[in-house]
Amino acid sequence: MSGKPAARATDATNCPGHAAQKIAAGSPDVFFDGLPAARLGDPASCGSTISGNISATVFINGKNAATQGSLGTHGDVIVGGSGTVIIGQSGGGAAVSPVPPINLGFDEQFTLSDADGEPVPDFAYKITTASGKIFRGVTNERGLTQRVSTRATELLHLEPDDLA
C-alpha cells in the first residue's frame, strides 16, 4: 500500500500516559466512512492533540490530514484508520495515455408536415449533402425521411424527387 489509512474521529490512539484512547473530534464537514476526518490540532479523549507525522500533501479545512501513525502531543500514536480512504504522500498514480477524440459523426432526419401540422406520408424526396452525397426515399407513415449520416457537420438540402 502506497499510503496510510485516513484517521477519523473515534479511531483508536495509544497514549503512553492514558493507554487506549480515541480521537475526540474532527472536521465539521468532511467525513470518511461517515466519521469526521481527523486533522492537525484535533483532540484525543486524553487531552492530547494531533501534532505530528501528518500528511504533507492532503489538507482538510486548511489543516493537514491525519493518518494511521500520526502523533499526538502526549506522544500518542493513532492506531486506527479508515478501511476505505488511503492518504498517500506523493503523486505516484499510474501514467494515463490521453484518450484520442472520438468522432461519432452527425446525423439528421426530416419530418414533413402539411399546413395543418399533420405528417405527410408516402412523399418521394431527395436529400443532397453539401459534399454532394444524395439520399433518396419516401417518407413513412409519420412523415419521416431516412436518417442521413455524415462524418462532419454539413448543410442538407431536401426537395421533392420524381425518381424515387
From TrEMBL:
<dbReference type="Pfam" id="PF05488">
    <property type="entry name" value="PAAR_motif"/>
</dbReference>
<dbReference type="InterPro" id="IPR008727">
    <property type="entry name" value="PAAR_motif"/>
</dbReference>
<protein>
    <recommendedName>
        <fullName>Rhs element Vgr protein</fullName>
    </recommendedName>
</protein>
